[in-house]
């Protein structure tokens, strides 16, 4: 006899009890999770009303440290609450699942216990003919309904999408052709101007006036005239940049214009700090900082700062004698307490700059000082404490009589030009960017001198005379540290976790190519001829074809790099974090020339004079020569 | 009783393990973005390495063989339940519902229409192996290997029988869903089966509120209506249904000859038992034949109407494609009055020329135009065949499983008093 129809008797009351407890538990958990979920959705931890109002108050009163602290605490609290809520929802989800599983099992066992022997239904069967008729009817109704609803939708939303796109393609192409034609005409005019004009700066304005009617005759449409006039206005710089004087010296971070190219010759390759080989002199620097030396004539300048003191130093570059120290103190508006900075940035990460008449230095608290070549204070001002969580590190640079300051902060970022003689603001342009640590680079791009700046989210160019934004392109993200490089009309920018981009500048900048293999968060790249050299902070160096973006060579070093490389005499000088200078040829293939140790750690870029290299170590300043 | 307690202990252990792993993750919350960028909900778990992908395929074969043996040889419902629970745990919670046979349809279609796409071998295996088993043994895959079916099955407690005509009408939805998923996969637009899978978010603990609500609703309905997703939505079920109809060794209710005791009559919660058709219920042969011929003849007309409707609706269908949506947005974007969306900003920063986007979007819209015709015609064909099929009468004397609709859950087996 089979036991097929044997009914498994289970403890009905037990399983019913378990099912009820687990079911109630699941229901309660489900409700709690729902409430929590709704709460999470209503809160935006980075945009709460209370914190926003406190931040507004802080903007009105930026030196209120107590308020700042209060905001931080509030912020932390809100974020903690947010993540705790998230955790609770997920943990609740697991508990709910567990509850549901137990309920399901208990109910299954309960119903299994209530099973009855199979019964023969006495009910009248659904008539097969009727069922089929009904099924056909409902399929027809369903199908017709579907066709009807679909057609109504199609009719109401129909807009010839495909044709619209095709037309839009044609219109965009036609516009492009028009723009190209306009550009070609403008270029033609500009070329004619250049040929007609002698390269004498004083006569530029006159020549421009003379050329204007000619321009009008060449460009037919009114719109094209405007474009040409606009271009002619901005293309008015006929001098050379960097100037010969700048090229003869090393006036700013990454050399003249900040483009990482030095013009000095006979630079030594080999030295050894431990044995003193080729070390001409070595001098201690009073206060440590991460800025690099700059040179004008026989004088070498750098700065040092800690929480209490901010100083500018001048050394005789021939014998290493500390000629003078200028203190940046008693500056009106300077905060009583310095801002918090991280140890690897410090209070004077920005490199000083000089125009041969004055030396300019900026510090982490926003103090900006100008001293003459003999150390006498010319002017000083406080720009407001930079809202920068690591510490301000953008270096200064001079163009003619303007000191350019890139002041990217968490809020109210700007770039400004101050008069080198008085410190008064010549122009200031608001930048819609996030805080950055990169430095300005000034280039002469086809007769137009531009300041090119990098910060999340864009690479932007500004007219050095007026501060007007010339172009910008959104292509960079994150905490941008490296500055841009420029060569042959192409701007190169990169940042860690973003990408390396080659940009064709202009009114409508274009990305020529993009790469992701080697990215940097601190050192800046070098562009030279048709090559681009990218240095990463973890120790890799790569050489790219600057036009096509393909990697020509790549090389790994042990030490890691914070210092930006400089090109001098056809060679690249790259200081690793252990203090070893890696020198290699700026060529399509990697050719090592030397690896010379300083004998102490260094994160500063070298400065050059004919036959000499100047390096700032962790504690000392070195002069290297033969 | 002991078995049940042991099982609950195992579940506590399993959920506990998952919970511990989840607690560890919480120390590193995802970053937030000031730009307003929202972390997307992951639609697929990390792909498995070669060896593990092979392991998944081997597990699939082993579990399919085991459940087939349980159904056909052992005729054991308990075995089916045990395999179902294993599948929920392994293919569901452990493998997070991916790779899954239901979704693999889209991988196959994408590979057929896009030569640049190389279908993962595991996806191909998950598509082919259940079909092969179904061809020989019926839908044993649905019985308890597919985690989506299994999870609905364990929730079934008080089955309610739906009206037959309603089942027939709702049974056309999977065909429409299959057609849509093929269209979107062929145009490389989206894998809609995966995106709108009601249970995968629950398996992964990352369902959006909407999808969680849908999943929960399906499970609640499953308490009363057996396998609502399998019967009225599953697109892979359509293929299995068709293949299973010609299966050689499909499950039989009786191990020997049917004695027409009627005991099994109401045993199937899916209503997939064909009852004997008594002569008195059969329609007049002449009128039935005339209707059958008439309905068969209007199939081409239905296909044309369907195709024309689909073609007219192609713009709406195309708007699911992200490229078309972006191009449409770009076309109507006015920088003076409108705020730039993240999508437009992203496109602009990519440096891609806008005319190229328009060109590509126009091409996709064109594909959807033709796709709309084919989809509509397919739906018309399905409706036509369903209508003519409902005019076909087959004389039957015994109780036998409806080979297409039966998912071989083995519930009916113990109702049969016949011994071998």
TrEMBL record, chain A:
This protein's UniProt keywords: Membrane, Transmembrane, Transmembrane helix
InterPro entries associated with the record: PQQ_b-propeller_rpt, PQQ_rpt_dom, Quinoprotein_ADH-like_sf, WD40/YVTN_repeat-like_dom_sf
Bilayer-spanning residue ranges: 12-38, 91-111, 138-156
SMART domains: PQQ (SM00564)
PANTHER family: CELL SURFACE PROTEIN (PTHR34512), OUTER MEMBRANE PROTEIN ASSEMBLY FACTOR BAMB (PTHR34512:SF30)
Positions of the Pyrrolo-quinoline quinone repeat domain: 279-429, 525-586
The protein, known as: Pyrrolo-quinoline quinone repeat domain-containing protein
Domain of life: Bacteria
One Pfam entry name: PQQ_2
UniProtKB/TrEMBL annotation, chain B:
InterPro entries to which the protein is assigned, alphabetical: 4Fe4S_Fe-S-bd, 4Fe4S_Fe_S_CS, Electron_Trans/Redox
Keywords: 4Fe-4S, Electron transport, Iron, Iron-sulfur, Membrane, Metal-binding, Signal, Transmembrane, Transmembrane helix, Transport
Domain of life, per lineage: Bacteria
Any single Gene Ontology cellular-component annotation: plasma membrane
Residue stretches spanning the membrane: 51-72, 79-104, 124-148, 169-187, 207-226, 292-311, 368-390
4Fe-4S ferredoxin-type domain ranges (all copies): 249-278, 395-420
Range of residues in the leader sequence: 1-20
Entry annotated with the keyword Iron-sulfur: yes
PANTHER family membership: FERREDOXIN-TYPE PROTEIN NAPH (PTHR30176:SF3)
Protein's name in the database: 4Fe-4S ferredoxin-type domain-containing protein
Organism from which the protein derives: Labilibaculum manganireducens
């Amino acid at each position: 006899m089979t036991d097929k129809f044997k009914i498994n008797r289970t403890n009905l009351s037990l399983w019913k009890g378990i099912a009820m407890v687990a079911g109630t538990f699941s229901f309660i958990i489900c409700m709690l999770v729902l409430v929590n979920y709704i709460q999470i959705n209503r809160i935006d931890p980075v945009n709460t009303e209370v914190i926003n109002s406190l931040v507004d108050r802080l903007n009105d009163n930026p030196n209120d440290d107590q308020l700042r602290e209060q905001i931080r605490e509030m912020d932390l609290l809100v974020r903690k609450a947010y993540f705790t809520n998230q955790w609770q929802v997920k943990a609740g989800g697991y508990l709910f699942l567990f509850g549901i599983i137990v309920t399901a099992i208990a109910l299954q066992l309960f119903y299994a216990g209530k099973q009855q022997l199979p019964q023969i239904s006495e009910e009248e069967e659904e008539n097969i003919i009727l069922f089929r008729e009904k099924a056909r009817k409902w399929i027809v109704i369903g199908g017709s309904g579907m066709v009807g609803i679909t057609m109504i939708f199609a009719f109401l939303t129909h807009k010839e999408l495909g044709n619209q796109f095709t037309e839009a393609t044609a219109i965009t192409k036609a516009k492009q052709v028009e723009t190209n034609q306009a550009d070609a005409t403008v270029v033609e005019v500009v070329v004619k101007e250049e040929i007609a004009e002698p390269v004498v700066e004083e006569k530029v304005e006159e020549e421009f006036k003379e050329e204007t009617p000619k321009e009008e005759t060449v460009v037919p449409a009114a719109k094209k005239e405007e474009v040409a006039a606009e271009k002619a206005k901005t293309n008015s710089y006929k001098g050379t940049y960097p100037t010969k004087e700048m090229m003869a010296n090393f006036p700013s971070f990454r050399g003249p214009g900040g483009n990482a190219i030095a013009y000095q010759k006979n630079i030594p390759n080999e030295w050894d700090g431990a044995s003193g080989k080729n070390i001409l002199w070595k001098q201690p620097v009073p206060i440590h900082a991460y800025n690099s030396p700059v040179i004008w004539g026989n004088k070498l300048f750098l700065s040092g700062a800690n929480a209490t003191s901010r100083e500018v130093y001048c050394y005789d570059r021939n014998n290493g004698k500390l000629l003078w120290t200028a203190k940046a103190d008693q500056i009106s508006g300077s905060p009583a307490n310095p801002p918090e900075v991280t140890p690897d940035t410090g209070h004077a990460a920005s490199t000083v700059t000089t125009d041969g008449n004055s030396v300019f230095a900026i510090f982490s608290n926003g103090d900006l000082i100008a001293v003459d070549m003999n150390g006498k204070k010319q002017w000083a001002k406080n720009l407001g404490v930079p809202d920068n969580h690591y510490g301000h590190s953008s270096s200064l640079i001079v163009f003619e009589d303007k000191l350019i300051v890139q002041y990217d902060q968490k809020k109210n970022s700007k770039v400004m030009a101050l008069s080198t003689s008085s410190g008064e603001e010549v122009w200031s342009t608001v930048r819609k960017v996030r805080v950055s640590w990169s430095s300005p680079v000034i280039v002469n791009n086809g007769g137009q001198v531009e300041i090119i700046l990098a910060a999340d989210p864009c690479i932007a160019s500004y007219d050095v005379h007026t501060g007007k934004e010339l172009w910008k392109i959104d292509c960079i993200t994150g905490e941008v540290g490296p500055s841009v490089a420029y060569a042959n009309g192409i701007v190169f920018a990169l940042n860690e976790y973003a990408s390396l981009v080659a940009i064709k500048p202009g009114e409508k900048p274009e990305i020529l190519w993009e790469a992701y293999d080697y990215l940097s968060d601190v050192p800046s790249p070098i562009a030279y001829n048709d090559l681009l050299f990218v240095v990463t902070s973890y120790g890799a160096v790569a050489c790219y074809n600057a036009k096509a973006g393909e990697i020509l060579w790549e090389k790994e070093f042990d030490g890691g790099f914070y210092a930006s490389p400089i090109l001098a005499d056809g060679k690249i000088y790259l200081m690793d974090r252990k203090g070893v200078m890696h020198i290699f040829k700026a060529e399509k293939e990697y050719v090592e020339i030397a690896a010379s140790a300083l004998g102490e750690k260094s994160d500063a870029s070298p400065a050059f004079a004919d036959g000499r290299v100047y390096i700032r170590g962790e504690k000392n300043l070195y002069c290297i020569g033969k | 009783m002991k078995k049940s307690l042991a099982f609950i202990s195992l579940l506590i252990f399993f959920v506990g393990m998952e919970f511990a792993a989840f607690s560890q993750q919480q120390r590193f919350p995802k970053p937030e973005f000031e730009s307003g960028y929202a972390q997307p909900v992951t639609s697929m778990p990390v792909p498995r390495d070669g060896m593990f992908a092979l392991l998944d395929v081997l597990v699939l074969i082993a579990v399919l063989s085991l459940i087939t043996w349980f159904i056909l040889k052992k005729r054991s419902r308990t075995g089916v339940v045990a395999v179902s629970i294993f599948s929920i745990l392994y293919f569901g919670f452990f493998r997070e519902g991916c790779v899954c046979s239901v979704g693999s349809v889209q991988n196959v279609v994408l590979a057929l229409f896009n030569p640049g796409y190389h279908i993962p071998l595991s996806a191909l295996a998950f598509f082919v192996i259940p079909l092969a088993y179904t061809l020989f043994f019926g839908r044993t895959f649905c019985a308890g290997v597919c985690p989506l079916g299994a999870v609905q099955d364990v929730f079934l407690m008080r089955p309610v029988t739906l009206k037959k005509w309603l089942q027939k009408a709702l049974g056309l939805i999977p065909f429409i869903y299959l057609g849509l998923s093929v269209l979107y996969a062929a145009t490389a637009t989206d894998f809609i089966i995966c995106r709108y899978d009601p249970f995968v978010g629950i398996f992964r603990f990352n369902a959006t509120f909407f999808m969680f609500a849908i999943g929960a609703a399906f499970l609640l309905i499953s308490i009363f209506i057996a396998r609502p997703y399998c019967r009225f939505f599953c697109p892979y079920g359509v293929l299995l249904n068709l293949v299973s109809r010609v299966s050689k060794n499909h499950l039989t209710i009786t191990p020997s000859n049917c004695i027409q005791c009627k005991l099994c009559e109401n045993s199937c919660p899916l209503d997939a038992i064909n009852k004997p058709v008594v002569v008195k219920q059969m329609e007049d042969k002449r009128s039935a034949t005339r209707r059958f011929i008439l309905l068969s003849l209007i199939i081409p007309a239905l296909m044309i109407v369907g195709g024309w409707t689909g073609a007219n609706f192609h713009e709406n269908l195309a708007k699911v494609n992200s490229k078309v949506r972006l191009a449409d947005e770009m076309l109507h974007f006015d920088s003076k009055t409108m705020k730039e969306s993240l999508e437009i900003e992203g496109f602009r920063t990519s440096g891609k020329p806008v005319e190229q986007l328009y060109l590509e979007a126009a091409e996709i819209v064109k594909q959807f135009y033709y796709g709309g015709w084919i989809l509509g015609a397919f739906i018309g064909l399905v409706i036509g065949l369903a209508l003519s099929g409902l005019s076909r009468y087959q004389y039957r004397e015994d109780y036998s499983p409806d080979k297409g609709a039966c998912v071989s859950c083995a519930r009916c087996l113990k109702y049969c008093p016949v011994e071998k």
